[in-house]
Design goal:
Order of helices and strands: EEEHE
Radius of gyration: 12 Å
Shape: elongated
Strand order of the largest sheet: 3-2-1-4
Strand content: 35-45%
Number of strands: 4
Length: 68
């Protein structure tokens, strides 16, 4: 089982802050500030990779940010 995943996170500036999605996974999130967005992206990623017992199959998640 893998311990690390690196996600390509596409970020867009919106009227209310920022939005982001990971094209290869069903991960979508928003944030009023860029730091809020990254925090929310980690939370959304944790939920996406959670197994049936509620634990995350990846211990280390990193992002490659593409800013549109």
């Amino acid at each position: 089982m893998a311990n690390h995943v690196s996600l390509r996170l596409t970020v867009e500036k919106t009227d209310t802050g920022y939005s982001a999605f990971a094209g290869d996974y069903p991960i979508f999130t928003t944030g009023k500030t860029f730091p809020d967005l990254i925090i929310n992206a980690y939370e959304a990623s944790d939920l996406c990779f959670e197994d049936e017992e509620g634990s995350n199959k990846y211990h280390d998640i990193s992002f490659q940010v593409e800013y549109l």
